[in-house]
Design goal:
mainly alpha, 87% helix, elongated
């Protein structure tokens, strides 16, 4: 049961990070204002950090 919950949480974090990456890349491809691109890049990096920390925690690293 705990394993299933951890897997679901991991999948959600992965999807959230991928969504943030897509928004960042879309903004770059659309030549959005530099401030918007930077904001989205920072949001993507923050999501990846959360994902990385979660994965390290569940794998005991």
């Amino acid at each position: 049961m705990v394993h299933d919950e951890l897997s679901k949480a991991n999948e959600l974090l992965i999807q959230t990070a991928l969504d943030a990456l897509c928004r960042y890349q879309d903004a770059r491809n659309a030549f959005a204002p530099a401030k918007e691109i930077e904001r989205l890049r920072q949001k993507y990096e923050a999501q990846m950090k959360i994902l990385e920390e979660f994965q390290h925690k569940i794998h005991g690293l």
